[in-house]
Specification:
Elements: E1 37-42, E2 54-56, H1 59-66, H2 71-79, E3 92-97, E4 105-113, E5 120-126, E6 129-130, E7 134-136, H3 142-154, E8 161-165, E9 170-177, E10 186-189, E11 197-201, H4 213-216, E12 226-229, H5 236-248, E13 259-264, H6 269-276, E14 285-289, H7 297-314, E15 324-325, H8 339-347, E16 353-356, E17 359-362, H9 382-399, H10 424-440, E18 444-445, H11 447-453, E19 455-458, E20 466-469, E21 473-474
Parallel strand pairs: 1-3, 1-12, 12-13, 13-14
Antiparallel strand pairs: 2-3, 4-9, 4-11, 5-6, 5-7, 5-10, 8-9, 15-17, 16-17, 18-21, 19-20
Helix pairs in contact: 1-2, 2-7, 6-8, 9-10, 10-11
Length: about 500
Amino acid sequence: MAISTAVDASAVARVVGIQTKFINTNVGGVVFLPQRVAVIGQGATATVYPTTKFQVSSAAEAGTRYGFGSPIHLACEQLLPANGDGVRSVPVTVYPLVDDGAGVAAVGEVTPVGTATKAGTFRVLVNGIDSAQFTVAVGDVVADVITKAIAAINGVLRMPVVASDGATKVTLTAKWKGESGNDLFIQVTGPTDTGVTFGITQPTTGAGNPDVQDALDQVGNVWETMVLNCLNIEDSTALDAYEVFGEGRWGALTRKPLLVFTGHSYETPAEIIAITDTRKAQRVNVMLPNPGSVSLPLVSAAGQLARVALTANNNPARDYARGVAKYVEPGADGVQWNYVQRDQAVKGGASTVEVRDGEVNISDVVTTYHPDGDQNPAYRYVCDVVKVMNCIFNLDLQFNTAAWDGAPLIPDNQPTVNPDAKKPKDARAVMSTLAYNLGLNALISDIEYTQDNLQAEINDQNPKRLDAVFPVKLSGNANIISVDLNFGFYFGTSAVRV
């Protein structure tokens, strides 16, 4: 019999008490893990900004706070574009890095040569970002061209470089310091018959990335599920730090695992596998490609991550294939990976994309986890890791509650009138219902297996401890479809003459 607590059990005087409280009726129900995106990157060197984590709601806000054209701003343009076609309601939190004290900015050059014999309009592009147009008039000399080019470049806020007068050239300096600035790529477009030509020196002087540990130390007890690393993929120190931090997040007492996404534009699978093969037993880092692209790798990764995070948030059982990174530049058709190369990449712990109709389409999204001899690595596919995250999240919702915390714990066969008392069979019932609902949402398969094999018992050494086991089989995904088409010919029957 239930005992009401509206009036104390020791009360004697006449009274009517009605206590109102919320009761969770979604016991064993499934709630999708809300995704969160964390951006770890630098602001602009010329901008003074706080280094504490901060949730941004738009790319413009990120640019205003951390500097337009900075890695943080360019990443947020993909995640939180002005047209709303990004992660939408998925929170984006910036964990800002400041330049390393010994950091050096990458510097490139555009060198105009000649005197204009014909008018022409030009643009300078940096990683596909256009400067304003500048027009060379008849008679313009090198100094005139430099002045016009500088104004055109610096007139575009989102440019990742600052242009200055180098006497006989336009000097383009990255807006931040570090190795990642060496991923900047300069182009000049315009007519070829004006008498003025342009020489280009690509940036190579960037050095000294900041330490990401300061950012990771700020994460705390928040479940940041997906992290965008804005540093260059060759920075193994940063990747190591992410791996160590992320591995700790799998711990039973923390139980908030995360994935870290880093972009690259390598043109062959061998180049990225050289990195992923050093991380075969690691399940945190994810390498997102855009072979041969002029887009900054961090921009390519952010464009893909926007699609991954949104799908994981709204339908965590689904894979991410054909998600389109609409606002990044694809590489040339001739450097895109064919099926054999993509298969090689996935087996080597590297993600893949396919270019369709001039747009970058996500294909396989995998971690670096690919131990030798393991045909079906447990932590290979990001969508499978997200399914496990959802299982953890929902188990936590059921048992990390006031109803279970400190409740009287008694055997299954013992009667009780205490409404707070819990029995092992109560835990089994919750997990059985949870298994059904996880299966209903296609996060797991073979519901009966889970229900038949789940366990919950009072520990035989500690009466204040409930031991439980919740075994699940993750659902698969239609990544490979193999169909045999068998055909033959129709032969008419011979006519019978009478």
